[in-house]
Amino acid sequence: MKLINGHRIKYYLNQLFKYSEGTLFFLKSILTERQFMYLSCVIVGASSALAVMVLKYFAHSVFQFATYLDSLMHLPYMNSILPIIGILLTVFIVNKFLNGSIEKGTYQIMIAVAKKSGIMPRKQMYSQIITSSLTVGMGGSLGLESPIAITGAAFGSNYAQNYRLNYKQRTLLLACGVAAGISAAFNAPIAGVLFAIEIIVVDLSVTAFIPIMIASATGTIVTNLILKEEILLSFKNQLVFDTGNTIYYILLGVLSGFFCVYHARMFRRTEKYIGGWSKNIYKKALYGAGLLACLIFLFPTLFGEGYNSIKILTSDTPQTILKNTILNSFESNEWVLLLFVAGAALVKTVAAGLTMGSGGNGGNFAPSLFVGSYLGFVLSKVLLLLGVKDIPVQNFTVVGMAAVISGLFHAPLTAIFLIAEITGGYGLMVPLLIVSSISFAISKHMEKYSMDIKSIATTGLVFTSDRDFNILSTINPKNLIRDDIKTLNTSHQTSDIIDIFATSNQTFIPILDGDQKVIGVVNFDRVRPLLLNLKQQPQIPLNDIIDSPIVMSYFDSTKIFIDAFDSNKLQFLIVQKDKKYIGYVAKTDLMDNYRRNLKSYRID
């Protein structure tokens, strides 16, 4: 039967995929494990880079379309309408084609590493591209980097699953996908590597760096071959550090640290408010997107990622940022420009929260670059207008981005090398070190967890910077519950307790009531003297040797169990489910699991 064109294309694509898959299985059989991993990281890196190009081209094309319409209308009406359409389309696609939910935020990658053996759903290979391109491409005030990282991780994870690679190899390829995605997004291979190892996977051996570096380099090469430079965030001006401005860079670091705390808290508050506004997803989307549209009308630079406005602020004509705004007639007034930029920096946080809370998809990496550059511009411009000193505004605008990334994501190395790479040199390395370290220290002191994992870090679901806790958090307490000891109730005598301790290896006995609820525990150390003086046994009331129990719930997380062991200095914890005794968890079992997981946790 003759195939029509559409079916023929699908047929050839399927045949090409089967041929490629068969070829890779053959190569796997003849190559060493390490050689196949090197080949795999190139394939994953190239795939992630291609996904980045799809996202970037779409977002850039929509931005150009909106800019063209603005030039015709002379007011940013279209900039306000497109985000509403984009968020509604995103919500519609998630509801109709993605089972009504989509995982947002890079912490999803960390959950996959910590709890799911590096396995990510196949739909993450395309769902992030579709939804984030609609949201951000049509003006939602978020960034594409988080979806890019998730997509790259999904490519790496599913590739490893398809070719039957083990946990270590799967996790390593997941990290390769992340590194390649970030590298391709910014044309910054070193930053891509650091992002993967500083934020996503926290414990790597030296040999594991090589595949990640290869994948990151592949992402950059593919991007340079295909993607136009103007789509990327890059700066061509040579920026030089003047040691006389050190005190002002310190001031920028301090200011950025406190602003990071404001940004993280205001974003969460806004997202939570909009997210809980209505159970009807379309009403919520319309309400949140409507508020976002109002903000974009007042501050058109909030449209989309905002990278174009960052480039304008670092140019010799930053006042052009006021074009096609309601302040267009004040373009020559530097104080008006300053107030506009300061206002946009403050409002960007709310705009990002509205976009995410109303159902849009994106990340906080681009907003952090946005507010960082605006913050650096404002500080340097104030000092310049007040006549304090002739400050290099471009330098502060660029360095401010590193300060905010470092503080929000608790990733100073990523921040430093990202900005160093996109500026095309290391002339600002000293101020980058200064602002990033100060901002990180202040933010870390006030916010224990980074912005991306704040909402779930306290539950013990993801990896943190504490390596020992990370390993322990991979253990499920439910799998360690034992029910191999004898229990008693209040009707038993002291002699019954002595008999159990004398004839078994038990070190404690749970005491239950008629409903199987734990009311106490008898510890062996309390009755040890009785074993030496059997005549006293009948004379001691049972209540005198019962201690108050530390009882855990069957549904408690690993973190809660660990805290209970440490704070009470116990070797066992009794567990109840629905207020009924079901067993206990021994600290020795937890530590044995820790030692076993320690070997598989480290990625070689």
TrEMBL record:
Annotated TM spans: 36-55, 75-94, 172-202, 208-227, 247-265, 285-303, 335-354, 366-386, 398-420, 426-443
GO cellular component: chloride channel complex
Membrane topology category: Multi-pass membrane protein
InterPro entries xref list: CBS_dom, CBS_dom_sf, Cl-channel_core, ClC, ClC-type_chloride_channel
Keywords per UniProt: CBS domain, Chloride, Chloride channel, Ion channel, Ion transport, Membrane, Transmembrane, Transmembrane helix, Transport
Highest taxon listed in the record's lineage: Bacteria
Keyword Transmembrane helix: yes
Principal localisation: membrane
Residue span, CBS domain: 480-539
GO molecular-function term, one example from the UniProt record: chloride channel activity
Name by which UniProt lists this protein: Chloride channel protein
Organism, as annotated: Myroides pelagicus
Native organism taxonomy: Bacteria, Pseudomonadati, Bacteroidota, Flavobacteriia, Flavobacteriales
